[in-house]
Specification:
mainly alpha; 72% helix; 0% strand; globular
Length: 376
């Protein structure tokens, strides 16, 4: 990251100062506020240079800001642990040596390189116990597991290459192509973008496993399970037949962090507030607002539609309902991914030209009609 690594060291230094000087009951408010303001400054600076000055942004800055977002997860996770007394850090002011010994595990956790570039989020308590277990009883050799996961990454990248080849040679033309083809083309583009995430998460898992993290203790008869630290599996997530299931499974450790940080702490509109904070955390681009608010509205609609319709269906109709619900989920996710990843007006124009944006709209309209029917 070059000089931009100072973004991470500055956040770490400020948080350590807060840990040493602020009461644990107040530290989360201070840590959350300072860290999010620092992160938002750099997000807005990138937007200013991209959209106003029309200057290319250094890839090292993008890398540093991406890592800064993951650092925000860890800092706020520890601050919540301290506030809720899940973690207790006591310092003896008369002994600088003891204070340094207490701080070393915390600094090691915040700047842990194996999860700094791609996650997943691991709690501070779990990190410390993993470090202790590695020293006392080393986990089994992870070479086989790492090799298999890298083979999965290779297969995913081959699939992505084939999809990219098809999309480039069969570009959607609104004037000559049918509507169905446009929807399928946008869906294929969203799958390409999602595969990048799955590959990134798998490589991150490999890095953690190679360092000894992520091992799940099983009985001696069972094969070792290295899935303790994972952000999601391609087949499990893509098999989700409901958009609310997809939201829980996608980027699992980040979803759990958002649930703890925002959802469980908000007394009013927790779902909307959670997705709105996700917009803030991701960088406040136009596509982020459209994508995440659409996701929030469709998750709310899905919960109510499923609760209203599913109990009334026979076993055969439930299977048909699940199939069409899966298609609906895929199309909604495609809209969200395109809006969030492309981030600009071109993404919104693409969704309107291909009419795929009608899927989330129909879900929201159906939800409103069911609510009106319940009221009246």
């Amino acid at each position: 990251m070059g000089i931009y690594s100072l973004l991470l060291f500055t956040s770490t230094f400020v948080f350590i100062l807060l840990v040493c000087s602020v009461d644990p009951s107040c530290i989360h408010v201070w840590a959350f506020g300072i860290q999010m303001l620092w992160q938002t400054f750099w997000h807005l600076l990138i937007q200013y240079r991209e959209y106003y000055l029309h200057e290319p942004v250094c890839i090292r800055l993008f890398l540093a800001v991406s890592s800064l977002m993951l650092l925000t997860q860890r800092i706020t996770s520890v601050s919540m642990d301290l506030q809720e007394k899940r973690v207790v850090l006591t310092f003896d002011a008369s002994s600088s040596r003891v204070a340094c010994v207490m701080l070393l595990p915390l600094i090691s956790y915040i700047l842990n390189f194996t999860t700094l570039l791609g996650g997943p989020l691991c709690s501070y308590s779990r990190f410390v116990s993993l470090m202790a277990d590695i020293r006392l009883s080393p986990p089994p050799n992870p070479l086989r597991v790492v090799f298999l996961k890298l083979m999965q990454v290779l297969l995913l990248e081959c699939l992505r290459y084939l999809l990219v080849y098809f999309l480039k040679h069969k570009i959607y033309d609104p004037s000559s192509s049918i509507i169905l083809y446009g929807a399928l083309w946008v869906w294929g583009l969203s799958v390409v973008l999602r595969i990048q995430y799955y590959s990134h998460w798998r490589i991150s898992e490999c890095l953690n496993n190679a360092a000894g993290f992520g091992f799940w203790e099983n009985s001696p008869e069972e094969s070792p399970d290295w899935s303790r630290l994972s952000d999601g599996d391609f087949w499990t997530i893509e098999a989700s037949s409901r958009i609310s299931e997809f939201a829980r499974r996608w980027n699992a450790t980040t979803a759990s962090w958002l649930r703890r940080l925002v959802y469980t702490r908000c007394k009013r509109f927790p779902l909307f507030m959670t997705f709105s904070f996700s917009v803030w955390w991701h960088g406040l681009h136009l596509g982020h607002f459209v994508g995440f608010w659409t996701w929030a509205a469709t998750v709310k609609a899905d919960n109510n539609i499923h609760r209203h319709l599913h109990p009334k269906l026979s076993s055969t109709l439930k299977k048909i309902y699940t199939f069409f619900s899966w298609i609906n989920t895929q199309m909604i996710v495609a809209c969200v991914v395109i809006a969030v990843e492309l981030r600009n007006l071109f993404a919104l124009r693409l969704l309107s030209l291909t009419y795929i944006g009608l899927f989330p709209l129909f879900n929201i309209i159906l939800f409103i009609l069911l609510k009106l029917n319940t009221v009246y």
